[in-house]
């Protein structure tokens, strides 16, 4: 008869316990892999070009500073003279008035150019073509001598009696001639700047706004203008600086702008170079201020245009650099 030991299977022996891991000492741990160091690419050509450019710039600045023909004492004497400041004030006034009126008229011309009416498009194109094709000095001289073409101007019934008649010589003086001529010129350029800004807006956004039932005025104010200003502001800033410098041509009409004011001085004192430097420095100062203003206006309208945000301003970069120096 079989015994229980013969019937039941033999039990498997219990596995032996695994030996406990022995702690390794720091000396036995593997060394960390060496870190890869990024080395900037050497560009000796750029450094040589930069050194040569700095050397040439230093030579140019040194020649200007040490040249006694500039008469820097005379420049400092006349830089804040009353006549020069009056001419500068008239230059700034001419720039502001002509550019403001030019953009108002340019907006009308751009709207006509974008109209579906062929007559309005043709008239706007013809106006822009004429005033962009003729030199500004020729336009000013033409308006200054308008009395030879139209001795009198009247208001009345076409091909009928005139109720009010004035002589053109008494109506249009040198300053008004400069305002009219520069305004008509700037309006032609402003029309193209505004038209280009409006066309830069994606057509799909206008279609989406129309599908949502938004009114034309709201679409213009909320969608078209904010995006068009990104393209308009840089060109408008260049127009502003160009208009500031372009006012110097009114000196041929004996308008007492900045250039004409210094011309009166050097025609009497024969200090041509220092007086021209006075005008040049004032133009540099004003254009620098306008360029800084243009930079911040562009940043204002560029908000939301990029996912990375706006780059830091030069003042913010200077503060960050100063903070790093202080922490070091």
Which key terms come to mind for this protein?
single chain; 14 helices; mainly alpha; 328 residues; two-stranded antiparallel ribbon
What does this 3D model show about the protein?
- The chain has 328 residues and is mostly helical.
- Helix content is 67%, strand content 3%.
- It contains 14 helices and two strands.
- The protein has helices at residues 4-7, 44-66, 72-78, 82-113, 118-133, 136-144, 146-149, 168-171, 174-199, 203-211, 216-246, 258-269, 272-301, 314-327, and strands at residues 152-156, 162-167.
- A two-stranded antiparallel ribbon has the order 1-2.
- The termini are far apart.
Write a brief caption for the model:
With 328 residues, this protein is mainly α. Helix content is 67%, strand content 3%.
């Amino acid at each position: 008869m079989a015994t229980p030991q013969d019937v039941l299977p033999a039990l498997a022996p219990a596995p032996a316990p695994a030996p406990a891991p022995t702690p390794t000492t720091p000396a036995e741990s593997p060394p960390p892999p060496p870190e890869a160091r990024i080395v900037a690419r050497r560009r000796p050509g750029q450094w040589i070009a930069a050194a040569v450019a700095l050397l040439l710039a230093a030579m140019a600045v040194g020649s200007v500073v040490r040249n006694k023909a500039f008469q820097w004492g005379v420049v400092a004497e006349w830089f804040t003279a009353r006549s020069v400041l009056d001419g500068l004030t008239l230059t700034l006034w001419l720039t502001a008035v002509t550019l403001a009126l030019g953009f108002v008229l340019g907006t009308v011309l751009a709207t006509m150019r974008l109209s579906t009416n062929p007559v309005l498009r043709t008239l706007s194109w013809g106006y822009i073509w004429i005033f962009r094709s003729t030199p500004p000095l020729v336009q000013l001289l033409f308006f200054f001598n308008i009395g030879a073409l139209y001795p009198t101007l009247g208001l009345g019934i076409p091909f009928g009696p005139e109720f009010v008649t004035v002589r053109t010589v008494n109506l249009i003086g040198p300053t008004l001639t400069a305002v009219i001529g520069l305004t008509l010129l700037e309006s032609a350029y402003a029309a193209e700047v505004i038209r280009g800004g409006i066309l830069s807006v994606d057509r799909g956004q206008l279609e989406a706004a129309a599908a949502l039932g938004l009114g034309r005025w709201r679409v213009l104010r909320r969608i078209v203008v904010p995006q068009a200003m990104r393209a308009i502001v840089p060109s408008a800033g260049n127009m502003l600086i160009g208009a500031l410098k372009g006012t110097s041509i009114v000196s041929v009409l004996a308008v007492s702008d900045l250039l004409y004011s210094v011309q009166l001085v050097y025609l009497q004192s024969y200090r041509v170079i220092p007086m021209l430097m006075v005008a040049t420095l004032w133009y540099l100062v004003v254009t620098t201020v306008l360029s800084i203003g243009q930079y911040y206006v562009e940043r204002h309208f560029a908000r939301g245009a990029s996912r990375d945000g706006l780059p830091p301003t030069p003042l913010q970069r200077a503060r960050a650099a100063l903070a790093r120096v202080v922490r070091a």
